[in-house]
């Protein structure tokens, strides 16, 4: 099954906690502080890999978390960093932050990587709190939690040519004839259930990629047959190859099936309908196809269709080489043009850009609800997350920072009184001015 759309949750590893420890020295009950810092939590990275075909793995495991950092140790030993988690996805996967409705990247090249969740920083060990006024600090900071994101991954296959047509026209037979792909072929509708890629070798140096899609029927946009849900895989192709069954046309209305397909393409997206299209009439080995081909050609010409019309047999291979050569030179022309235009890659290399957006937001926001003051903001929330509230020395440090960043002053300005509640990151504090 081709899983081409999933929703997942990613989480960077938690930072390791800073350690509280004291050197053991002869004749001294407690030497100087020597608790080391915790290690950093691992990042979650998404990487495009052309060996991966679908998003099925993520469908089965929608929660992905990188390794936590290890705690610091005595002797000022730093904890080990957590390992990064690399999630491999097919080339052509678009990554969206669903909470922000923001496309983070479109991974269109093999090996392209995107950091989607950073690991938390390791907590500071008590060694580093040593100062002339505090010679034996008895506290350390906890590791930061890792970043968490909800993502939507949407795969749109990358191919040069998109093969479409009514059911049973011989699309998969054609793909098997021109490439080494071995799709299922049978004399009944809807043999192909999901899109398949095939690499077509044009000559020693040139090749092109064709995507074979499940056949369409009338009302595909309303879900008839397999519906039109795979048409998105044609969006990135350069040209659409529309295959017609020469042995099965309505004589009184030769363009009947062609119109159905074009209507379905249009209903799916105007852009898809506007893509260059090449028509190929298949099953030329059958006598009735020969008669029908003339009818089709006449009708197409009178419809002012000016593109090429190929007549071929996917089964015997007759006329197939002409088509492949045509496609190849067509693509050469398009690609020369594209190189000139030099498509901009939509890739957020890392999260630096995104962070810049938040740079100018004040460090905290106070939201007053009656006697409760809810405080949010990265800096303050982080502080709550890394403070060991059972430890009076750590609490003292916490208070010092709160004062330093101006939160206490801001709360007083907002009208806070002794005994009112302050809520940060779900934790409730009672306000006592110092
Ligand atoms: N005589 C003849 N039969 C063909 C030719 N191409 C395909 N067929 C037959 O047509 C039937 C359908 O072929 P498929 O390749 O499965 O058709 P499809 O368009 O992929 O069908 P769906 O995936 O169901 O839409 C099979 O029985 C093929 O053997 C051809 O050139 N000549
Ligand atoms: Mg097929």
Describe the structure.
By secondary structure, the chain is of the alpha/beta class. It folds into three domains: 5-155, Spo0b-associated Gtp-binding Protein, Chain: A (Distorted Sandwich); 161-341, P-loop containing nucleotide triphosphate hydrolases (Rossmann fold, 3-Layer(aba) Sandwich); 359-430, GMP Synthetase, Chain A, domain 3, CATH 3.30.300. It contains ten helices and 18 strands. The protein has helices at residues 56-60, 171-178, 256-268, 270-274, 287-302, 320-341, 352-358, 378-386, 392-404, 407-413; strands at residues 5-11, 44-48, 63-65, 85-89, 93-97, 102-107, 113-117, 148-155, 161-165, 196-201, 207-212, 239-245, 277-282, 309-311, 365-369, 372-376, 421-424, 427-430. A hairpin with a 5-residue loop joins strand 10 and strand 11. The model is unreliable at 343-361 (pLDDT under 50). The protein binds guanosine-5'-triphosphate and magnesium ion.
Instruction: Give the CA-CA distance, first to last residue.
Output: 64 Å
Hetero ligands: guanosine-5'-triphosphate, magnesium ion
Multimer state = single chain
CATH class of the largest domain: Alpha Beta
The strand order across the widest sheet is: 10-11-9-12-13-14
How would you classify the helix and strand content by structural class?
alpha/beta
What Rg is obtained from the alpha carbons, in whole angstroms? 32 Å
List the total number of helices.
10
Q: Looking at this structure, what is the CATH superfamily of the largest domain?
A: P-loop containing nucleotide triphosphate hydrolases
Share of helix among residues?
Answer: 10-25%
Which range does the strand content fall in? 15-25%
* Number of domain modules: 3
Following the backbone from N to C, one meets helices and strands in this order, namely EEHEEEEEEEHEEEHHEHEHHEEHHHEE
CATH topology of the largest domain: Rossmann fold
Inertia-based shape: elongated
Low-pLDDT segments, ≥5 res: 343-361
Number of strands: 18
């Amino acid at each position: 099954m081709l899983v081409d759309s999933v929703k997942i949750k990613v989480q960077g590893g938690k930072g390791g906690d800073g350690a509280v420890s004291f050197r053991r020295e002869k004749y001294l009950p407690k030497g100087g502080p020597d608790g080391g810092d915790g290690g950093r939590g691992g990042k979650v990275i998404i990487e495009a890999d052309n060996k991966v075909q679908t998003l099925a793995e993520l469908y089965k495991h929608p929660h992905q978390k990188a390794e936590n950092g290890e705690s610091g140790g005595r002797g000022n030993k730093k904890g080990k960093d957590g390992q990064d988690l690399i999630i491999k996805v097919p080339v052509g996967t678009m990554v969206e932050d669903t909470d922000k409705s923001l496309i983070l990247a479109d991974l269109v090249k093999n090996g392209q990587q995107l950091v989607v969740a950073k690991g938390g920083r390791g907590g500071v060990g008590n060694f580093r709190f040593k100062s002339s006024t505090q010679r034996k600090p008895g506290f350390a900071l906890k590791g930061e939690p890792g970043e968490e994101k909800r993502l939507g991954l949407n795969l749109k296959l990358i191919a040069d040519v998109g093969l479409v047509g009514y059911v049973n026209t011989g699309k998969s037979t054609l793909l098997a004839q021109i490439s080494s792909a071995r799709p299922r072929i049978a004399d009944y509708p809807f043999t192909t259930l999901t899109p398949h890629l095939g690499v077509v070798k044009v000559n020693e140096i040139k090749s092109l990629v064709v995507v074979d899609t499940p056949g369409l029927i009338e009302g595909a946009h309303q879900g008839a047959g397999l519906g039109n849900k795979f048409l998105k895989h044609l969006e990135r192709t350069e040209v659409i190859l529309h295959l017609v069954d020469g042995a099965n046309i309505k004589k009184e209305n030769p363009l009947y099936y062609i119109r159905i397909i074009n209507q379905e393409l249009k209903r799916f997206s105007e852009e898809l309908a506007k893509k260059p299209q090449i028509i190929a009439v298949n099953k030329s080995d059958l006598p009735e196809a020969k008669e029908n081909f003339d009818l089709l050609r006449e009708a197409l010409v009178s419809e002012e269709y000016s593109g090429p019309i190929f007549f071929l047999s996917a089964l015997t291979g007759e006329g197939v080489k002409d088509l492949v050569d045509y496609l190849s030179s067509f693509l050469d022309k398009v690609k020369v043009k594209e190189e000139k235009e030099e498509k901009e890659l939509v890739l957020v290399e890392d999260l630096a850009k995104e962070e810049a957006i938040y740079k100018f937001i004040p460090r905290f926001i106070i939201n007053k609800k009656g006697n409760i003051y809810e405080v949010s903001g990265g800096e303050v929330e982080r502080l709550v997350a890394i403070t060991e509230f059972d430890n009076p020395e750590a609490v003292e440090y916490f208070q010092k920072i709160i004062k330093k960043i101006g939160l206490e002053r801001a709360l007083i300005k907002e009208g806070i009184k002794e005994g009112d509640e302050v809520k940060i990151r779900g934790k409730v504090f009672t306000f006592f001015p110092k």
